[in-house]
Design goal:
The complex is a heterodimer of chains A (489) and B (88). With 489 residues, chain A is an all-alpha fold. Chain A has a single domain, classed as Ribonucleotide Reductase, subunit A (Orthogonal Bundle), CATH 1.10.620. Chain A has 23 helices and two strands. Chain A has a two-stranded antiparallel ribbon with strand order 1-2. With 88 residues, chain B is an alpha/beta fold. Chain B has one helix and six strands; from the N terminus they run ββαββββ. A six-stranded mixed β-sheet of chain B has the order 2-1-5-3-4-6, with helices on one face. In chain B, a hairpin with a 2-residue loop joins strand 3 and strand 4. Chain B is globular, with a radius of gyration of 12 Å. The chains are: A mainly alpha (489), B alpha/beta (88). Chains A and B meet through helix 17, helix 19 and helix 22 of A and strand 1, strand 2 and helix 1 of B.
Chain lengths: 489, 88
């Protein structure tokens, strides 16, 4: 019997030359990705973990047992019910966004497992697929117990099956990232940008806040998920290294595109949770501070490591760090019935904290919250007054990222229109417009929510839009947690 | 003809879909957007309607101002802006 040190390198790097077909037929460029290179160029592909299947199963089993132990000890329904209501609603956002997105990662990794250009890459992608399947199962399992208590947790499974505007945006993102993507772009976009950067923020940063909030189950769940990410995220780096060697402009484009796409989605998921749905005394830092520590620094190290440049839109991104998720939250608050979780208004204490952390544009945002507060004061608190404190016109969305046209500032919204091949488009920002124009064949035929309403595909009647198209109900659509009954109003 | 337009009022946090008839006045369009944005932003007082960089005459119709579907228009306070004024 060979020792592990002898057989594992042999098994991992077992490849062969094809006799009955060509390498290009086995690995078609359209699904293997660009640049297409012969295997001789990929044969030195390597990563640090070098796990065997036996070790994988053993390690994962131990991790699962640890998660279930925490669930049994502190993750029961009564434990969750004791958490602060705003935090519970942050949990609902993640409960919905996470599981089936992870399942799309299973598909993406399986693409790598078949069309990755080296056997060691393919082997790692197999484990990556199993990881993502685990990341699908764990939140579905843990959130399932909460559904009978609160039907909004049913969105853990339901979300991606609806035409809710946020689901349209999330599907647009994940369809491109994983389901409809070639192996090279999948691994660079997912492993290098999403997992090394943004989900690091999501899982490590949020875990810290979860601990402060007393949500030890969520903390354990995301830290356990993150240990898998740390391993399979290594796949993308050697892929990027080779793409840089042969087509650095393309590598730069992928980095620029995917950083921007990730930024918008995650600023909503994480920014809102950190700065609005976590109690002020439990926040260890602002979303911007977390981004600077976990994303920006890490991202710059990646750029340096590969000889890449800062994305051309970097100043736009830095400005958006100051304001974007604030614009989104205020907009979403006023259209909370279009979502499946509840909202809180920031209190004077919260607003003081937000002003301190985001001084550049906070005057403009404070004016918005003041105005919304005045509406509550005018109509009085109560669940029957919700509809009086909601937006009335149809909100609008970017034709690239599918997120609300809430980029820029209240004084200068950066939405911009484009006429392309006889059709009109609108984008929230210049980077979204740029991405569209780089690959119009990919994006031009997608129909956003506004055009669906205008064409009749989606109902124009607001209530029908919520119930028939977004699949919300009066029990599950979002409300103000306190129905406007704030001591400080 | 109905015109679906993207409206942005200064002080607001999101663009809104405003549907107007091409024979409506620019003033009427302005009122629709102020009302739609009113939960979040103060639309009282005079605000310019700006379309394709031009400040419009409130009494002109949308057709006269050459509005097309799915274009952006803005309501802005006059801060001494340099946009040209439409005297049609």
């Amino acid at each position: 019997m060979l020792n592990r040190e002898d057989w594992l390198p042999l098994a991992r790097k077992l490849d062969w030359e094809f006799s009955y077909t060509t390498e290009q037929e086995v690995f078609p460029p359209v699904i293997s990705g660009h640049p297409w290179l012969p295997h001789s160029s990929w044969q030195d592909w390597e990563e640090a973990f070098k796990t065997s299947y036996r070790e994988y199963v053993q390690n994962q089993h131990e991790k699962d047992m640890a998660v279930y132990a925490v669930r049994d000890a502190v993750g029961r329904l009564e434990n969750v019910q004791s958490l602060a209501t705003p935090w519970i609603n942050g949990l609902k956002i993640h409960a919905a966004a996470l599981p089936l997105a992870e399942f799309t990662g299973t598909i993406g990794n399986l693409r790598g497992a078949r069309f990755g250009r080296d056997s060691a890459w393919r082997a790692m992608a197999c484990f990556g697929a199993l990881d993502e399947f685990r990341h699908t199962q764990i939140p579905l399992l843990l959130m399932h117990e909460l559904v009978r208590w609160n039907a909004q947790f049913d969105w853990a499974h339901k979300f991606y099956h609806t035409n809710n505007w946020f689901a349209i945006a999330a599907r647009h993102f994940f369809d491109e990232l994983t389901l409809g993507q070639n192996a090279i772009e999948f691994h660079i976009a997912t492993n290098v940008i999403l997992e090394t950067g943004f989900t690091n923020l999501q899982f490590v940063g949020l875990a810290s806040l979860a601990h402060e909030a007393g949500d030890y189950l969520f903390e354990k769940m995301v830290t356990s998920i993150q240990t898998d990410e740390a391993r399979h995220a290594q796949i993308g780096h050697p892929v990027l290294a080779l793409v840089m060697k042969h087509d650095p402009d393309y590598a730069q484009y992928l980095i620029d595109k995917w950083f921007w796409r990730n930024w918008h989605l995650f600023s909503i998921l994480t920014g809102v949770s950190m700065d609005y749905l976590t109690a002020a005394d439990q926040r260890s830092g602002s979303f911007k501070e977390f981004m600077e520590e976990w994303i920006v620094d890490q991202f710059f190290r990646t750029l340096d490591e590969f000889g890449l440049k800062k994305p051309w839109y970097w100043d736009i991104f830095l400005d958006e760090l100051e304001i974007y998720h604030h614009m989104i939250y205020a907009s979403a608050y006023s259209y909370r019935s279009t979502l499946w979780f509840d909202f809180v208004m920031p209190s004077p204490t919260d607003r003081k904290w937000l002003r301190q952390k985001y001084p550049k544009y906070w005057d403009d945002m404070d004016a918005v919250w003041k105005r919304i507060g005045e509406r509550w004061k005018a109509v009085g608190p109560g669940p029957d007054k919700e509809s009086s404190v909601l937006g009335t016109a149809l909100p609008t969305f970017c034709d690239l990222c599918q997120l609300p046209l809430s980029a820029g500032t209240p004084r200068n919204n950066t939405a911009n229109v484009l006429a392309y091949e006889g059709k009109d488009y609108i984008f929230c920002s210049q980077p979204c417009r740029w991405i569209f124009l780089r690959e119009p064949e990919r994006y031009a035929s997608h129909t956003g929510l506004v055009k669906r309403v205008l064409s009749g595909e989606a109902p124009a009647d607001f209530k029908a839009l919520l119930t028939d198209y977004f699949r919300l109900t009066p029990d599950t659509w979002g409300k103000d947690v306190y129905a406007g009954d704030y001591d400080w109003l | 003809m109905l015109l679906p337009l993207y409206g942005f009022m200064e002080g607001d946090t999101i663009g809104l879909l405003i549907v107007a008839d091409e024979q409506e006045s620019v003033r009427s369009l302005s009122e629709k957007l102020r009302d739609a944005a009113s939960l979040r932003a103060d639309g009282s007082g005079y605000m310019d309607v700006v379309y394709r960089g031009i400040v419009l005459d409130p009494d002109s119709t949308l057709a006269q101002a050459d509005f097309k579907p799915l274009q952006r228009f803005d309501l802005r306070r006059n801060h001494g802006l340099s946009e040209s004024r439409d005297s049609r």
